Amino acid sequence: MKLRFEDRIQAGRLLGQALHKYAKRPDVTILALPRGGVPVGFEVAQAINAPLDIMLVRKLGTPGNEELAMGAIASGGVCVLNSDLVAAFNISQELIEAVAREEQQELERRERAYRGDHPAPAIEDRCLILVDDGLATGASMRAAVAALKQRKPASIVVAIPVAPPDTVEILKEQADEVVCLATPEPFLAVGRWYEDFSQTSDEDVKAFLARAWAMESDPNPMEQP
C-alpha cells in the first residue's frame, strides 16, 4: 500500500521527525510556501523548535491550463521558467511577462495580508528550511531557492512530504539538501497523496503565523486558569 498522508498537519509532524538533526539550532529558520505549505511548516517548526516565516512564490500557469506551471516568480524579482514546456506550447515572451505581472500583484497582496507589520526574517548566514505540502514540477520551489541564494544564507534545505523522483533530483542540484518523505511513481498530483487536501485559506495562513509568532515572542507562556 502506497503512503498517503491524513492531512497537512500529519505530514508536517512526520516531516519534523525527519528533520530532527536541525532541532534547537539557533541558526535555523523555517520558511513555508503559502498557502498549503504553511500548516506543514507550522508543525515542522514546532517539532524542531525553530522560528516560522513565509517565502512568497507565485506559480505562472500555462495559458489554457493554469494548473500546469510554465514557471514561477518569487520575492526579489526572480523568475524561473520551465523552458521545455514554454517551447512545447510555443509561449511568447510577451505572454510570459503578462502572466508574471498579474502574479506579481498577487504576490505583493499576499505579502501585505500575511505579514502585516511583522518584520521580515533574517536570511544572511541562516540555515533556511523551505517547506511546502508537496511538489509536482517544483517550479515554485526552484524560484524560492534561486531568490534566497541571492541573499547569502548559510545553507538551504528543501523539505517536502511528497514529490516525483525527477523533481527531487533537480532540486538536489540547487539546494544543499532535500528531505522528501515519499517519491511515488506514477505521481500525477500532490493531492493524490493526501486523504484530506482541502484548500488552505488566507485566514488559515494568518492564523498559523499568528500562533507561531506569538509563541516565539513568549516561548513559555503562563498557563491559563
Please state the CA-atom Rg, rounded to the nearest Å.
17 Å
Give the biggest beta sheet: 5 strands, parallel
CATH 2nd-level architecture: 3-Layer(aba) Sandwich
- Given as residue ranges, the uncertain stretches (5+ residues, pLDDT < 50) are 221-225
The percent range for strand residues is 15-25%
User: What is the CATH topology assignment?
Assistant: Rossmann fold
Number of strands: 8
Number of domains: 1
Task: Note the gap between the termini.
Answer: 46 Å
* Average pLDDT, all residues: 91
This entry's quaternary arrangement is single chain
State the helix count: 7
Arrangement of strands in the largest sheet: 2-1-6-7-8
Structure keywords:
225 residues; alpha/beta; Rossmann fold; five-stranded parallel beta sheet; three-stranded antiparallel beta sheet; 7 helices; 39% helix; 21% strand; globular; disordered C terminus
Put the structure in a nutshell:
The protein has 225 residues and is α/β, with parallel strands linked by helices. The protein has one domain: Rossmann fold.
Could you please describe the fold and organization of this structure?
The chain has 225 residues and is an alpha/beta fold. The chain has one domain (8-217): 3-Layer(aba) Sandwich (Rossmann fold), CATH 3.40.50.2020. Helices cover 39% and strands 21% of the residues. It has seven helices and eight strands, in the order H-E-H-E-E-E-E-H-H-E-H-E-H-E-H. The strands form two sheets. The chain has a five-stranded parallel sheet, sandwiched between helices. Strand 4 (65-74) and strand 5 (78-81) form a beta hairpin. Helix 1 (8-18) packs across helix 2 (37-48), helix 2 packs parallel to helix 7 and helix 4 packs across helix 7 (202-217). The longest helix is centred in the middle third of the chain and has 23 residues, at 93-115. It is globular, with a radius of gyration of 17 Å. The N and C termini lie far apart (46 Å). The relative contact order is 0.19. Mean pLDDT is 91; it is low at 221-225.
